[in-house]
Amino acid sequence: MTDDLTGAAAPDALAGADSAESFDSPARSQEPADVARRLEAILLIVDEPQSLVALAAAVAAPVPAVRQAIEGLVADYDGEAGGPRRGFELREVGGGWRLYVREELDDLVSEFVSGQAPSRLSQAALETLAVIAYKQPVTRSQVAAIRAVNVDSVVRTLVARGLITELFHDPETGAINYGTTDALLVNLGINSLDELPHISPLLDDGAEGFDSEVVR
After folding, report:
1. 109 falls within a domain
2. Nearest to 169 by CA among 94, 95, 98
3. By residue range, what is the domain housing residue 7?
4. Phi/psi of residue 58, each to 5°?
5. CA 174: distance to chain centroid?
6. Are 71 and 148 in the same domain?
7. Cα 189 to Cα 123, 192, 193, 216, distances in angstroms
8. Residue 108 lies in a domain
9. Number of folded domains in the chain?
């Protein structure tokens, strides 16, 4: 790269190489309050824990500034800054950060969501639930690859309905692995997943969309 740069322009061109502002995104304010506001906006919509590097890229700010903003948000939500303790928290899980409902409010949120949920699942939800039931533990990206569509909202619906749950986070990627719950067994009227019907006869070639070793 340096062979193509001449004269005094070279140092200037490389000066911001280690900063998130060197990305193609428009320059944004690096004031701590502005960085924190942008982080909140991103954290509100993500479904997977995000690393500091990923967050820095998303908000166009240096990693140290993002780390400082994260610490400030954690303290704010926990009431350490003198304000009230929020009903949610910013938690580090699997090497990344994500907003979570506080544990003591899980039952409240579950009851509310269950009361708002429709009585029947959509076709998309049923298909996604079937993939998770047969492939578990499985991540959202793996389910999306099988169904060839985005499944983010469907997975949230199934979690809210109590039919699937987060089992663990991949230690390397931080991706959430999902599995079915006992509530699914109750709804299906079976005692275990071993009683699920074999799906091979239902597929055109006996294996489409599933690895051969897990097809029942």
Report:
1. no
2. 94
3. 2-103
4. -65, -35
5. 9
6. no
7. 20, 9, 11, 18
8. no
9. 2
